[in-house]
Design brief:
116 residues; alpha+beta; four-stranded antiparallel sheet; 40% helix; 29% strand
């Protein structure tokens, strides 16, 4: 399984609540409508008030995971989201809630150990 892991920050002028609301109720439905949902599309929001290392600098507000069964599925989804007419809509919506100065995305390969 391949996963896109994105570490994203909210725009500084948004509250955490407004950021989550926009992501969950506007951006996710937009992505799903335009290109379909990956098999797993997960957002994990940082809880700054529960920091394990208080005072540590953290440059993101959410970790987004989009999981794909294989490279072919990942490439097909990336091709769909990269089409100019789709990419323009996605980027325009991202400008409403994301701080692109703090936007990092990587493809990772998952290895899981269970019952050890």
């Amino acid at each position: 399984m391949l996963t896109i892991m994105a570490f994203l920050a909210k725009r500084p002028d948004l509250t955490t609540e407004a950021f989550i609301d926009h992501y969950e109720n506007h951006h996710v439905p937009l992505i799903c409508r335009l290109v379909g949902s990956p098999p797993v599309y997960r957002r994990s929001y940082l809880r700054r008030e529960d920091a394990l290392l208080p005072g540590a600098a953290v440059g993101f507000d959410v970790v987004t995971e989009q999981k794909f069964v294989d490279r072919e599925a990942l490439d097909a989804w990336l091709a769909a989201v990269s089409r100019p007419e789709v990419a323009a809509q996605v980027r325009a919506d991202e400008e409403r809630f994301l701080d692109h100065r703090h936007y990092f995305a990587y493809i990772v390969e998952e290895h899981v150990t269970t019952g050890a």
